[in-house]
Write a structure and sequence with these properties.
Length: 229
């Protein structure tokens, strides 16, 4: 495995972790209708007797989301314990999402969109497990810090993807959170638009900066080579 392939796998893993963190934050916040605002939404009345379960699920999921953001940042910078910490977060996130999906299926008969959160955690967990395969782990080492431009590129792509996912919440969450023509997600339109826009804009800025740094580095390298020859 060459350097470019290894670096691409590292960036892919970081992007998936960033998306999973965003999914946990959005999923945790979205559970508020079943956890605390059950009386306000008639379709959620079925959860009335199960708020004791959904309230801690909501709170812990949001905490796991912030932990995922922290892990994403650490993955870009490198560290001796970052892989272990990320695995712990993904295992706990998968188990927690699995509990919510199972409970929703038993109580309501469907688990949308909580199932998306489970898929995100499980897929990212599998990806990080694959990175420990013998021929892969020797090249994709999160304990070693990447170059600043590579850090910015990885973090920027993760932030940009998370921003797009946040902005698209109205489309992939709306159908399961609508009642009599009213989309409940639209009640939180302002914070969703602000957060999504900031993530997308910040991520794009980081990507452009990283590309510029890589271009400058490549140009200076070529000039140095020509001067020697």
């Amino acid at each position: 495995m060459n350097y470019k392939t290894a670096n691409s796998l590292r960036v892919t893993a970081i992007v998936f972790m960033g998306l999973t963190a965003a999914m946990n934050l959005l999923g945790g916040a979205g559970t508020v209708c079943a956890a605390f605002l059950t009386k306000k939404y008639p379709p959620m009345w079925v959860f009335m007797d199960y708020q004791w379960l959904y309230q801690p699920i909501m709170i812990i999921t949001i905490i796991m989301g912030f932990a995922g953001v922290w892990a994403t940042v650490k993955l870009t910078r490198g560290g001796t314990t970052v892989y272990r910490d990320t695995m712990i977060i993904l295992v706990l996130g998968t188990l927690l999402a699995g509990i919510q999906v199972y409970a929703s299926l038993m109580i309501r008969g469907k688990a949308v969109p909580a199932n998306m959160k489970l898929y995100a955690n499980a897929v990212t967990l599998i990806l990080f497990l694959l990175l420990k395969l013998p021929r892969v782990r020797e090249r994709v080492d999160f304990s070693r810090p990447a170059k600043k431009a590579e850090q910015a590129a990885a973090g920027g792509i993760a932030a940009f993807a998370a921003g797009i996912m946040t902005l698209s919440t109205f489309f992939w969450v709306g159908p399961s959170h609508s009642y009599m023509g009213n989309n409940w997600v639209e009640e939180y339109q302002f914070p969703i638009l602000v957060l999504g826009s900031l993530l997308a804009a910040g991520g794009l800025t980081a990507i452009l900066w990283a590309l510029n740094q890589m271009l400058l580095s490549s140009t200076s390298g070529e000039l140095a080579h020509k001067s020697k020859s």
